Amino acid sequence: LRALVLILGNIxxxxxxxTLLQSFGIIGVAYAQIGQNTFILVSGRMLLKEELxxxxxxxxxxxxxxxxxxxxxxxxxxxxxxxMAMLDPMxxxxxxxxxxxxxxxxxxxxxxxxxxxxxxxQSRLVPLIPELTKLQIIDREKANALHRNETATTYxxxxxxxxxxxxxxxxxSWFLLSEFSISFVFHLTVLSI
Length: 193
Prior knowledge:
Number of helices: 7
Mean pLDDT: 83
Shape: extended
Order of helices and strands: HHHHHHH
Largest sheet: none
């Protein structure tokens, strides 16, 4: 359902951008994004109301504690993403400047392989979010126990998957490149650590 809302939001954005670009110029794209995000917000809230029947469509109160938690969570997420968002483009520029295109291509292949492995394993947590939300309201201790358990399990899966990537990197080199590449093995090992 979430993917459907996002797909519809992108379709609405495309339609509004084409329409409003002719009338308002580049500002029309900003208006189109406002329309897209409004659609996603309203439809997301309606779908959340459908899942959690006790919740009103329009919030009747504001919880300062909940807003503080959400803000802290958002800040932590951004702080963990900033180093990678800054370092990855800089590293690519450095690699493109002082190495060969083959070296840069191997780095990019290994980066995507390691990143997609992590994303695949972390995606197993997405269906748990509604369940955790319900449990948080009903039984906070049970929700915290489930969260701890699933987080620990995810770390075990990540450790196993990255260990397998490191151990199988020579075979992956043969499979993906049709030859053994020490650069591929090195990149995959470093990006899996």
